[in-house]
Amino acid sequence: MPRIHEFDLLENKLPRGALNAITDVAGVAVGHATLIEGDGPWRPGHGPFRTGVTVILPHQGNLYAEKVAAAVHTINGFGKVYGFEQVRELGCLETPIALTGTLNVPRAADALITLAIEQNPHIGVGFAVTGRKGYASVNPVVGETSDGFLSDIQARPIGEKEVRAAVANATSGPVIEGAVGAGTGTSCFGWKGGIGTASRVLPSEKGGYTVGALVQSNYGRSDELTIAGVSIGTYLRPPDSVNRTEDGSIMIILATDAPLNGRQLERLCKRAVLGLARTGSTVHGGSGDFVIGFSTAYRLSDRPERLVEERPYLHLQPIMSAFSLAVIESVEEAIYNSLFMAETVVGRDGNTRHALPVDEVVRLVRGNGR
Q1: Which residues are identified as catalytic?
Q2: In this predicted model, what pLDDT tens digit does every residue of 232-271 receive, in sequence order?
Q3: Most buried among 110, 191, 291, 305, by the most CB within 10 A?
C-alpha cells in the first residue's frame, strides 16, 4: 500500500528526506523481529502470538563505548518504559532503543544488557585487563505499547533471540512499516496500527539538518481520527465497530544530525505532542505517550582520556521554530504511515484489527477540499 505522501494529501512546509524515514539521519539503522504464530483460542502462555520487537540504533558501532546525546519526554506516563531516568540525568544513550509489547519490556532490557556486556566485558567488574580503575553499569532503554488485544501478552515471548535478530537485521536503508516488529499487534484509532516513519530537512540557511521520526502507534478511539485536518472518524469507523476500553499508547523516536545536547533535544521532544495532536489524539489519561530523541552529530566516550573535550555546539534558539516544525510534520506523517502501511491482522480468539481503508480515506480528505 502506498505511503500517505504519495497521495499528496499533506500540506507540509518542509521537504522530506530521500527515504522519508528516520534513517535519513546518517548512521541511524532500524531492525525488526516479528513473531506471528498460532491461531484460534487464546491459550495463556502458549499463544497465539502477534508481537515483535523493533530496534533503533543511532550508529552501528559500540554504542556503549561511544554514546550519543539524548533526551526523553513523558507526554502521559501510564506506561512501562525502561531506562528513562538515567537518560534524564546524564543526557546520553548507551544502548540501542528497543520497542516491544508491554510485558516484554524486562526481557528486552535484559537482552540489551547481554549484548552490551558482550561488546564491553568490563561492565560491572571494572577494567581488569587495562588496569584502569572504575566500574560501570549499563542503562538499556526500552519503550512499549500493549499488543494484548491480538497477542498472548502474558507469555512474554520476546527475549534475547528476537532482540539479537532485530539488531542483526538493522539497516540504514528504507524502513519496513505497518504490522511489523513492535507494531505487529498494535491498534490505532480502532484500526490496525504499527510502525511508521517520516523525515524533514531544514533549509540550507538554517543548517540543512535532518530530523527523522519513528512511531509505534497504539492509541485513540476511531471517532477521533483526523487526517490532514479532516475528521475521518466522523465519517468512517471500523467494520465491527469494536473499540478497546483502554486508552492505548504511542512511542515516538526522534533522531537528528544537528549538534544538540540533551537539554536542546528535550526541547525537540516536547514538540512531538503537537504532531500527535494533529492526528486527533487528546492524550487520554490511561495512555503511555513517550518520546525519545537523540543526536548523531558527535559521540561521547565512555571513559574519556581528557577532562575537557571540544564538541560542535549549535546555537539552537535562532532556528528553534524550524526544528519544531520538522518534528511536528515528521511525527504527524509517521503516524499516518503506520496506519496506511498496516494490513488487517487476526489474532487471539479471532480478535481482528482491520486495515484502514486508504482509498476511502483519500476520497474523504479530497472531498473536504484537501
Answers
A1: 249, 287, 289
A2: 999 999 987 555 545 789 999 999 999 999 999 999 999 9
A3: 291
